[in-house]
Each structure stands twice: as structure tokens, then as C-alpha cells.
Design a protein that fits this description.
Layout (H helix, E strand, L loop, with lengths): L2 H4 L2 H24 L6 H21 L10 H26 L6 H32 L17 H27 L6 H21 L9 H25 L7 H24 L13 H8 L10 H8 L3 H8 L4 H10 L10 E4 L5 H4 L6 E9 L6 H11 E11 L2 H11 L2 H17 L4 H11 L8 H10 L2 E9 L2 E8 L14 E7 L5 E7 L10 H7 L16 H9 L6 H6 L4 E3 L6 H5 L3 H7 L5 E3 L2 H4 L4 H17 L1 H17 L7
Parallel strand pairs: 1-2, 2-3, 8-9
Antiparallel strand pairs: 3-5, 4-5, 6-7
Length: 660
């Protein structure tokens, strides 16, 4: 049997399943002297099997990378076993299944852990031996940097949290029993909660203040509460402490979690947590500065000027040795031989400071290798870049798009769990920042770091701020873009961002009307009309083919016309007719022949376009369809409206006609 088969997840799962069954039946024989299971323990076997399967999938036990350290393997197996024990105990306590033997349940989990440890250790030795024979380098695994919490923050958080743990316990006890006085049993419960609180705080490092935003920090607090509840369930099952009120225990933990979340949000928002912001030099640094040798003022000015006026290509190639593909992308798109070093700025930061403090010397190339996702005020940042660039200058940046993030997210977690987690992540990262009620809270908590940005939104913001998209390319986990300062900045003071959008359309006599629709595209997509039209051709029906600006929900809304419901308001106001030519943007209107443009200005646009009556395929056929409708309408308005309406209804209902 080959080593590759030994490392197969399915083969490992099969072996682990055998170990699991051996452990369960072995404990049954030791406890009852027989391998035959009673009906009660047949049900227990099924429950344990399902929990074993779920825990194995969640922890990715069978996909372990054996190039990692042995301690990583040990902790993975220990964590998997602990989760299994937690799940069983929570089930027993929640459904009062106290008839099951504690010895058999915990003994099965223990034997499973021992068996897995022996199996995976043997496999670990075989893999490492095979790697050594192939000359593999095992020194490429770097340990994470140690986390150093600030003592002052640790004291504030721990003391305040201890007060919450105590106070909420008494409040919940009062709500349950009408008194703050604790009985002997509940005095013991309070002491147990103290112990669990301390243990879980140490394990999860919940008081460490170096997390990059509130989202990551509060996750440790939630994890600590979950561990407290799961461990309490284990203790209740193991020591038969069913005399405690389950409602009181678990409602206490829920209220504690809510209180801790509010407290930590207040703590974080007010700027107490600022990890790594030390501004005091060490004594050694001060000594080194004091003992510096005198500086030489003998400078070669001509050499300095020559270096500043050399083409940036060679220098940029040396700077980007770690990312040669990025350099090739820039070099293939921009003529670097005609851009000198003095006209170039290269930074790796999301801070506005580095742009606003660039001197007034003109720039033709600005490169930021930091992610756009970490910029708080994106439009303001782009406008500052626009300001420092000469006309025709280039802006190079990168972004981790929501499309790439989604693919990586679903690879990271098991299939079904990933869908649940992604919905939660979607609400927090993409819905809350767009709602007026939660937008300010979201940015206060996250400081705009690691925000979710679609490809369409970033390119649309660039176009909104006066840039023309020259090129884009996926490199690694990001999309790199090159934009050119090539047009005027948009004068729109309030670009659409919420679920309801207002679109400028050409109306009767050329007047601009504001058409209301539900959003089907990513924010700022309306500013990419020219760019998308250049990339893609028109598909049958007159829509742009493979339009990446349309969201998944937007495609559904377009097929069902939900997105056009707000246009009924335009109809009520008299800006649109029931049947009429499609209301077009200025760019799309410019694509029409001049004679048809003149005809269109003589009639008001409508909710139901002639397209649904004639079902044209090509753009020319669409133009001819609208031309026929306008001529017929001007000769006999009422008959034309009536005839086109019922023809459209027949095609929509019977033939399932759709425009997108």
C-alpha cells in the first residue's frame, strides 16, 4: 500500500471509523461483559457516530498537513476529542438523558483519542521519513509571533469582566428565584463558574488587546462563553449535577455574553485598545543615536541628479523581487522606460498621511502595494491620488475582492458549515456597512479595515474619481489594477450605495429623469458603463454580455422584475408611460443611430418596452423595433399602446420572455 493511500482522507476516515467502533464496543464489553448492544445503547451508538462525523468534518481531522509540527497534530486530535465530549454532554444535559453510562461515554472518547493518536503518530513518522528520503526541507514552518498583552488593558478587562460574571449571576438568580441569597448548591455553582471563567479566559486569551479589530477580538469572548457552557454540561453529566436549573445556567451564560459584547464594544470604540502603538524608544536606541559618527557633507550632486532622472524600470524590478508577476503586469501595461524615478512614488500603506504629505513635485506613477480593503475613506483616498498625478499618470493598486474571498471562504470550511458561516459573514461584512442605521457603528468598530469590496465597486469608485481603467489582473489572492488619470471627477455628490438606487435616464424632450429601481448591481457600477461595454459585447435583448457588475440576487430580481417595482412611482408621476421605449442612460443612448435618437426624444419612455412585443435578438433589431413602435404610436397612440401591451403580456406569460 502506497504512502499516498495512507494519507487519503477517505482511507483515514475509514480507519478512524474502525477505531471509533472498537472503542465503543470495547467499553460496552468491559462494562457489561458482552458485545451485544441493548436498544438504549444502539441509539447512543448512532448519536455518537453522527457527532463523531460532524466533529471530524468541522476540525478537518482527515486533511491534516503532515508537514506541520507534531504538536499541531496532537492538539488537533485533542481538540477533536474535546469537541466530541462537549457535544455529547450538551445533548445529555439539554434532553436529560441521564440513563447513559458516564463510564461508557467518556471511556469511548478516551479510547478513541488514544487510538487516533497511535494511528496518526505512525503516519506522521512515515510521512517525515519519506520527506527526509526525498530531501524535503522541514524548516519552512515558522511559529507565530508571541502575543504580548498590555498589563493595564489586561487589568481593566479582567477586573471589569469579573464584576460582570458576579453581578449577572446574582441578577439571573434573582429573576429565577426572587432573591439574591444563594443556597449552598448555588454557592458551589458560583465557584464553579469562577473557575470556568478563569480557565476559559486563559485558554482563549480573551483579554489580549492586540487583535486588529473588534470582529476578531469579540470572537475570543464568544468562544470563551461557549467553552464555559460546554464544560459546564460535561460537569453536570459527569457528576450527575442535574439538580441545577438548566434554564438558569444557560440563560446566565447568554446574558453574560451580551453584557460582555456591549462592554468590550465600548472599550474598543473609545480607543483604549491600541496594540503595538508604543512611541518610546528603548535605551539602546537612544544610545545608538547619541554615538553616531559625524555625517559627511561631501555629496556628489550630479550623481544624485542622475539617479533621480533614471528610468524607474530597473529600480522597480529590484523592489518587486518578491512579486515578479506584479512587476511583469506593470511593465507590460505601462512604458516604464519613459517614467523617471523622481516622478514615481511607491508605498505600502492604507493611511492618507502618506499621500497628503507628498510634496507638490508632479508624479506620473503612483504604486500602493497595500490592499484597498484597509482604506477607511476610499473615495477621498482616490481623489488625493488623482490630485498628485499629472494628466495621463498611472495609479497601481490591489484589492482582495468579495468574489475571491468567497471562493477562499468555501475552501476553508466544510461544505455545509461554510454556507451557514458565510451568511453570518455576509450580513456583518456586506449588509451592515450599507445600512444607514448600522453603517456608523460598523466603521467605528472596524475602522474600515478588511472591508468587503467587490471588483465592480473598486473599479467604479476609480471611474467616479476621474480614472480610466487601463488593465486588471488576478495575482495570488488579489486583483491588481492600473488606472490612468484621464477624465474629470464626477460631480455626483451622493453616489448610490443602498438597496434603492436613483438612475439618470433620458426622458421626453431630452430631459433627465431620475428613475428609481432596486439595486441589482454592486455599488458604483453605474460609473463603469463605458469600461464594461468595451470589455464585453451585447447579448440578445440588448443587455451587456457577462456583466460582472450584476450581483447573484440582482440576476434573480431582474428575471422576476422585482428590481423595477419602484419605477411605478415614476409612472404615477407621469415621467414614464405604461408602454414605451426603454429609459436609457446617456451612454447607452449615444449608441443609437442619430435618427432614432431624435425620434426617441419625441416620446416618453415606458415601463414595458416594445422589446417584449417583438422579441428582437440583435442591437440593430432592437433599434428597428423601437423605430416601428414610435412611428405607430405617433400615428395612433391609443391603439398602439393597447396592441403592444397585450402582445408583450402574451410573450411574458406564455413564452416566458425575459430581457436579462
Amino acid at each position: 500500500m502506497t504512502l499516498k493511500l495512507y494519507r487519503s482522507p477517505l482511507f483515514l476516515a475509514f480507519l478512524d471509523f474502525l477505531i471509533f467502533n472498537g472503542a465503543f464496543f470495547g467499553m460496552n464489553y468491559w462494562k457489561r461483559g458482552t458485545f451485544v448492544l441493548s436498544p438504549l445503547y444502539e441509539k447512543l451508538l448512532v448519536i455518537l457516530f453522527l457527532l463523531w462525523l460532524i466533529v471530524s468534518i468541522v476540525t478537518k481531522k482527515f486533511r491534516f498537513d503532515f508537514r506541520r509540527s507534531y504538536w499541531d497534530l496532537f492538539f488537533l486530535l485533542a481538540r477533536s476529542t474535546l469537541y466530541l465530549v462537549y457535544c455529547v454532554a450538551i445533548g445529555v444535559v439539554a434532553f436529560v438523558l441521564q440513563r447513559y453510562s458516564r463510564v461508557q461515554v467518556f471511556g469511548t472518547c478516551f479510547l478513541l483519542f488514544v487510538g487516533e493518536l497511535l494511528l496518526f503518530t505512525l503516519l506522521f513518522i512515515m510521512v517525515r521519513r519519506d520527506a527526509a528520503m526525498q530531501g524535503a526541507n522541514s524548516g519552512d514552518i515558522k511559529s507565530g509571533a508571541s502575543l504580548q498583552p498590555e498589563r493595564r488593558h489586561l487589568l481593566i478587562l479582567s477586573v471589569t469582566d469579573f464584576i460582570l460574571v458576579t453581578g449577572i449571576f446574582f441578577i439571573v438568580h434573582y429573576c429565577k428565584r426572587g432573591t439574591f441569597t444563594l443556597s449552598h448548591n448555588y454557592e458551589e455553582l458560583l465557584l464553579i463558574m469562577y473557575g470556568l471563567w478563569l480557565a476559559t479566559a486563559l485558554v482563549t486569551r480573551k483579554f489580549y488587546s492586540g487583535y486588529r479589530n473588534y470582529y476578531y477580538a469579540i470572537a475570543q469572548w464568544v468562544k470563551a462563553i461557549i467553552f464555559m457552557g460546554a464544560t459546564m454540561a460535561v460537569l453536570i453529566f459527569a457528576f450527575r449535577m442535574f439538580y441545577y436549573s438548566r434554564l438558569q445556567v444557560f440563560s446566565y451564560l447568554l446574558v453574560l455574553l451580551i453584557a460582555e459584547s456591549i462592554f468590550y464594544a465600548f472599550f474598543y470604540v473609545h480607543g483604549v485598545v491600541k496594540a503595538g502603538d508604543s512611541d518610546i524608544e528603548s535605551a539602546d536606541e537612544v544610545k545608538q543615536a547619541i554615538l553616531q559618527a559625524p555625517l559627511s557633507f561631501d555629496l556628489d550632486i550630479e550623481d544624485l541628479r542622475a539617479r533621480l532622472t533614471r528610468p524607474i524600470r530597473t529600480k522597480l524590478s529590484a523592489i518587486m523581487l518578491d512579486s515578479p508577476e506584479t512587476f511583469r503586469f506593470i511593465d507590460e501595461t505601462v512604458d516604464l522606460s519613459h517614467i523617471i524615478k523622481a516622478e514615481t512614488s511607491i508605498i505600502n500603506s492604507s493611511e492618507m498621511f502618506y499621500i497628503t504629505n507628498i510634496n507638490e513635485h508632479p508624479r506620473r506613477l503612483f504604486i500602493n502595494t497595500g490592499r484597498i480593503n484597509d482604506i477607511r475613506w476610499i473615495n477621498r483616498y482616490f481623489l488625493e491620488v488623482f490630485k498628485i498625478l499629472l494628466p495621463g499618470g498611472y495609479f497601481v493598486g490591489r484589492v482582495h475582492t468579495t468574489e475571491l474571498y468567497k471562493k477562499k471562504f468555501f475552501k476553508k470550511y466544510p461544505k455545509y458549515l461554510s454556507h451557514i458561516l458565510y451568511v453570518i459573514n455576509y450580513v456583518f461584512m456586506r449588509v451592515l456597512p450599507k445600512l444607514s442605521l448600522t453603517k456608523r457603528l460598523y466603521f467605528t468598530v472596524t475602522k474600515g479595515k478588511n472591508r468587503a469590496l467587490s471588483r465592480a465597486e473598486v473599479l467604479g469608485r476609480l471611474s467616479f474619481c476621474g480614472f480610466r481603467i487601463i488593465a486588471e489582473r488576478g495575482i495570488g489572492d488579489d486583483i491588481y489594477f492600473i488606472a490612468q488619470k484621464a477624465k474629470k471627477i464626477s460631480i455626483d455628490d451622493d453616489p448610490s450605495y443602498g438597496p434603492l438606487v436613483t438612475l439618470d435616464r433620458v426622458g421626453l424632450q431630452g430631459r433627465v429623469i431620475a428613475v428609481y429601481k432596486f439595486r441589482t448591481m454592486h455599488p458604483y457600477s453605474e460609473y463603469l458603463q463605458d469600461y464594461v461595454f468595451e470589455l464585453n459585447e451585447l447579448q440578445p435583448g440588448g443587455k451587456i454580455k457577462d456583466d460582472f457588475r450584476v450581483t447573484t440576487l440582482g440576476r434573480f430580481m431582474r428575471r422576476t422584475w422585482i428590481d423595477e417595482l419602484p419605477m411605478l412611482y415614476n409612472w404615477v408621476r407621469g415621467e414614464l408611460k405604461l408602454v414605451g421605449v426603454r429609459p436609457l442612460s446617456h451612454h447607452y443612448f449615444s449608441l443609437y443611430p442619430e435618427d432614432l435618437q431624435a425620434l426617441r426624444l419625441r416620446v416618453a419612455p415606458g415601463l414595458i418596452p416594445p422589446f417584449y412585443a417583438d422579441l428582437p435578438k440583435t442591437f440593430d433589431e432592437i433599434c428597428e423595433s423601437e423605430r416601428r413602435y414610435i412611428h405607430a404610436y405617433r400615428k395612433n397612440p391609443m391603439v398602439t399602446q393597447w396592441r403592444y401591451f397585450w402582445r408583450a403580456m402574451y410573450n411574458i406569460i406564455v413564452k416566458k420572455a425575459r430581457s436579462a
